[in-house]
Every structure is written in C-alpha cells, then in structure tokens.
Design brief:
mainly alpha, transmembrane helix, ABC transporter, 9 helices, transmembrane, 77% helix
C-alpha cells in the first residue's frame, strides 16, 4: 500500500485535479445562491468534475515510469483510485441538492457516473498509448462537449439531454449509452494494458 500511496502522492497532477474539484464546489455554492440558474450551472459543475477526472492520468515523468518493473496496469489502477475524488464531489453535490433543487438524484447520478467513466477511460487509454498529459488535452474538449448541449438546445428549442424537467426515455437512453461508451473505453484501456 505504501508504494502506491507514494506514487499517487507524487505522480498525480494534484493542482489541476484539486483546482477542478474546487471549481466544482464553487459552482455548487453559486447554484445554492442562485438555484434558478441550474440549467447552466449543473452542466458546468459536471464539466468541472469531468475535467478533473481527465487530469488524474497526467504523468509528468512519462518516459521514466514507462520502463518501471511495475508496469502500466499498476499505474492505471493506482490512478483509478484517485478518479474517485471528482466522482465524490459530484455525488456530494447531487446528494445535497444545493438550492433545494428538485433533482432526480438517480438521473443526475447516472449523468455524472457516465461522463466521468468515459473521460477517465479516455485518459487511461491515452496514458496507455504514452500520452503524458491527457488531462490537458481532454479538459477543454470535455468542457465544450458537456456545455455545448446547453447552448444548442437553448437556441434551437430542443429537449435537453440533461434530466432537468421531465425524465424522457431518450434522456435515460442517452446517458446509458454514454456510460456504455465509457465502459467500452475502459475495457480497451485494460485490454491494451494486458498486452503490454
């Protein structure tokens, strides 16, 4: 346990990860103050947590640790434990319902787990393919992907992919598909790691 803790303490990009989690908590505080802005702030909060999950797999010394005897699987599983932190922040916000919002906790929980699964899986897969800083690459893409539906649906008058008002079957299907995509990406990361 000690070697894992030592590696995680020194290997994870803590400033970026904790910055994303802190930004998520700041957005949650704003949501508590202005609950009428939930349409924008809940996806923004999800974007912060998802970006944090991508930073978990940033490796400053990628060339050095790639040749260590422990291997990539050990590194990825150690970092996966850290990916629980942004998920815990998301879960805390969904459970506490800032601003006394009438959130469907299951639906928002599914949205968070699905998003964080796909982002952390993509970061793990990129890390497996020797991308040293996948979080730096994923964070802006994730923020755009999570916030774009808010803007597009607002302009076009379409139904939101987020479980805001009604829980249409299409919303559930969308988030289940995102989660399944995340599981598929994780399986690809683990499978390719087993071949290494």
């Amino acid at each position: 346990m000690a070697p894992r803790w030592w590696y995680v303490r020194r290997g994870v990009a803590w400033p970026a990860l904790l910055g994303c989690c802190g930004a998520a908590l700041a957005v949650a505080a704003a949501l508590d103050r202005w609950p009428t802005t939930a349409v924008v702030l809940l996806p923004a909060l999800l974007a912060c947590c998802a970006a944090g999950a991508g930073f978990v797999f940033d490796e400053r010394a990628g060339a050095v640790v790639a040749v260590t005897p422990r291997g990539g699987g050990w590194r990825r599983t150690s970092r996966l434990a850290v990916a629980v932190l942004p998920l815990a922040v998301w879960g805390f916000v969904v459970l506490t319902r800032p601003g006394d919002l009438p959130l469907d906790r299951w639906a928002w929980g599914l949205a968070g787990v699905a998003t964080l699964t796909i982002v952390s899986g993509l970061a793990a897969l990129a890390s497996r393919h020797e991308v040293d800083t996948p979080g730096s690459l994923l964070a802006p893409v994730v923020a755009f992907a999570v916030l774009a539906p808010v803007v597009v649906t607002g302009f076009l008058g379409w139904s939101s992919v987020y479980p805001l008002d009604d829980l249409a079957p299409g919303v559930w299907a969308f988030w289940v598909a995102v989660g399944a995509g995340g599981v598929a990406v994780w399986l690809a990361a683990v499978r390719s790691g087993m071949r290494a």
